[in-house]
Every structure is written in C-alpha cells, then in structure tokens.
Amino acid sequence: MNKIISYIGFANKSNALIAGQTPLKRTKKTLHLILVCSSGSENLKNLAKNLSVKHNCQYLITSNNLEDLTNIKDIKIVGITDENLSKAIIENKEML
After folding, report:
1. How far apart are CA 88 and CA 21, in angstroms?
2. Can you tell me the distance from the alpha carbon of 2 to that of 52, in angstroms, rounded to the nearest whole number?
3. Which secondary structure element, helix H or strand E, spans residue 61, and what is its range?
4. First to last CA, the chain
5. Angle 2-13/83-91 helices, nearest 10 degrees?
6. Coil, helix or strand at residue 77
7. Which of 92, 72, 74, 90 is closest to 2 using CA atoms?
8. How do residues 57-86 score in pLDDT, each as one tens digit?
9. Average pLDDT, whole number, for the chain?
10. 61 φ, ψ (degrees, to nearest 5)
C-alpha cells in the first residue's frame, strides 16, 4: 500500500489529482484513472462509471479508505490526470 500512497502523493504534488465530484464533472483535463472509495454511495459509483466512459479511462473501487490514501479529509472520489502515475497505480491495484 505504501507504493499506492506514494503514487497518489506524487499526483497530488504535481497537480495531477482532481479531488471531489464537482471538480471531476467540470474538468477539461484528460483523466487516466478514477478512484472511488468503497464506502461511497451507489450514485457516486455510477458517476465514476459514467466519467470513465466519457474520458475513456479505467475506474477502481478502493477497499481502503480514500481519505487515508490521499490525506484529504472527507474525500470519496479522485481522478488522476498523469498517464504514467495512473498506469503505476493500476499495475499495483491489488494493494488498493
């Protein structure tokens, strides 16, 4: 899990992390990965699915709390805009 936390931290520091429903709906950037907290509502999971179709990217439901992974309070959904970090997270998705 430390690798995933590092990758998400790198995305956050490089402004490649979009946190929250509204910013994700409004973004003009290309998303490469969407992460949804398992404790999120069904509507939120449906939003992630719809956004993944719109942006032609993968979405993952995390078994760990997304707040712990991102260090952002009350967060249930994030998008990653960096392609390489997204690939690295997907390759290590069993740690989520």
Report:
1. 23
2. 25
3. strand 58-62
4. 7
5. 170
6. strand
7. 92
8. 999 999 988 998 899 999 999 999 999 999
9. 94
10. -100, 120
